[in-house]
């Protein structure tokens, strides 16, 4: 009988410590948050993205290679000019130090790039509401005409939704940048998670989002260049935390999924605090013009990545993985865009095939 009581007690403890949770707007970041996370190598073998469902145990032992800190501020606090366009209740963080549209040689510099978020009701949701950057030193804000709904609340196991988004950033005297796409989100798992930060199991849900978009860039009166992009985000969310316990980003090309970023909530560690200049930036390539091959200078520390080549109509003409050499011998003469998806961002360049 004593043994039976012990078994029942153990079962009750297990039930109490591993239970389904629900995520609401109160679990999202707020203005003034300073959230630290670590970046891990994307080659980790401990990640199985298909390991999902009910009552799961996710146990991860990552090796951090760098850290970043996201500081959430209102638009006015970032730049008083932004507050004239962007809602005073929106808040965001700097996502890149520099930005270079794929394949574009613009007569401008785009720096200090911010995304701004907001909590909305009717229905309850967390959205990306605005974009802002300094363009040749001039602060330029832009509101989404169709917000990117990152989450609809409450988030509970089995819930799913989808929504469209559209952003048009007008660049005075130059042209415009447009993002046009949709997001499909599903809570596809629940259970507990452990990481180097959460050393004891924490109740969580897993949220899987698929984002399909076309990034369009137009200079002056020239035809716009539209480049398709398909990514997935996997986030393990915990009650009371304003940042995912784990956030994995992948790129999907021809139904092949490749991990491009692994980041997780963390405490301060004696690591470099990575800047964002390489997250969305220009790509160094040679020779240019090219005949038989183009060589990419891969940023230090990048091991796993996807390289895509597009023609000037936005058609993908080549894809390769983890290789810095692109065979161009079979490509027709003309202009092309290279896009490399790295850890936590993309880098781009344009080249001429002779």
Features:
354 residues; mainly beta; nine-stranded mixed β-sheet; five-stranded antiparallel β-sheet; 6% helix; globular
Characterization of this structure:
- The protein has 354 residues and is mainly beta.
- It has one domain.
- The protein has two helices and 22 strands.
- The strands form four sheets. Strands 1, 2, 3, 9, 10, 11, 12, 13 and 14 form a nine-stranded mixed beta sheet that branches. Strands 4-5-6-7-8 form a five-stranded antiparallel beta sheet. Strands 15-22-21-18-19 form a five-stranded mixed beta sheet, with no helix packed on it.
- A hairpin with a 6-residue loop joins β16 and β17.
- The longest helix has 16 residues.
- The chain is globular, with a radius of gyration of 22 Å.
- 35% of the residues are buried.
């Amino acid at each position: 009988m004593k043994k039976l009581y012990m078994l029942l007690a153990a079962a009750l403890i297990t039930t109490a410590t591993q239970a389904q949770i629900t995520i609401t707007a109160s679990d999202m970041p707020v203005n003034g948050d300073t959230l630290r996370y670590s970046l891990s190598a994307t080659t980790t073998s401990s990640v199985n993205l298909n390991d999902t469902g009910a009552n799961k145990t996710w146990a991860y032992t990552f090796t951090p290679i760098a850290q970043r800190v996201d500081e959430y501020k209102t638009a006015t606090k970032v730049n008083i000019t932004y507050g004239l366009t962007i809602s005073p209740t929106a808040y965001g963080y700097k996502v890149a130090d520099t930005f270079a549209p794929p394949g574009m040689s613009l007569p401008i510099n785009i720096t200090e790039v911010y995304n701004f978020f907001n909590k909305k009701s009717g229905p309850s949701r967390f959205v990306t509401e605005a974009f802002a950057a300094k363009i040749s030193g001039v602060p330029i804000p832009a509101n989404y005409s169709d917000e990117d709904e990152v989450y609809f609340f409450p988030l509970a196991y089995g819930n799913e939704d989808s929504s469209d988004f559209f952003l048009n950033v007008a660049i005075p005297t130059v042209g415009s940048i447009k993002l046009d796409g949709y997001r499909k989100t599903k809570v596809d798992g629940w259970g507990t998670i452990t990481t180097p930060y959460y050393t004891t199991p924490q109740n969580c849900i897993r949220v899987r989002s698929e984002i399909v978009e076309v990034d369009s860039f137009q200079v002056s009166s020239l035809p716009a260049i539209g480049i398709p992009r398909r990514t997935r985000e996997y986030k393990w969310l915990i009650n009371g935390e304003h940042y995912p316990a784990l956030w994995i980003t992948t790129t999907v090309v021809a139904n092949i999924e490749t991990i491009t970023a692994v980041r997780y909530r963390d405490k301060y560690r004696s690591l470099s605090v990575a800047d964002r200049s390489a997250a969305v930036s220009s790509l160094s390539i040679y020779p240019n013009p090219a005949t038989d091959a183009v060589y990419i200078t891969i940023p230090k520390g990048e091991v796993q990545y996807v390289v895509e080549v597009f023609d000037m109509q936005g058609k993908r003409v080549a894809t390769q993985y983890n290789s810095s050499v692109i065979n161009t011998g079979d490509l027709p003469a003309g202009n092309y865009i290279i896009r490399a998806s790295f850890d936590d961002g993309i880098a781009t360049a344009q080249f001429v095939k002779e």
